[in-house]
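haha ok so turns out i had the wrong file open the whole time. this is the CORRECT one, sorry everyone. sequence first:
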Amino acid sequence: RAPAPAGPTLRDEVARRLPGMAAGGASITWRLVVALFVLVRSALGWAALGGLVGLAAGFFLTGSAVPDGLADPDVLWAGAFGLLGGGLLGLLVGLVRALRVLFASRR
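then structure:
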């Protein structure tokens, strides 16, 4: 039978470091989840705002009345372009905010 090694074994060393590694992994996972929600919330919020602005611009530019305007395809196209533009802007803003969440220093 081989003699027991002197000093701590690899198992002892891993057992000593495991709580710190688990806490670090949980922190990274939490930051990824928060960054994803920040990105989605920003994109959806800006898209909704862009859609409303696009509809308002469509009503203004076509001169349609509000109840009749939703049947006008020009108003709907303006709303769709506003939705798309707002969503793209929201993705850019959300990406910057998500990167700040991911790489911010710990408090």
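The mean pLDDT is 85.
again sry for the mixup
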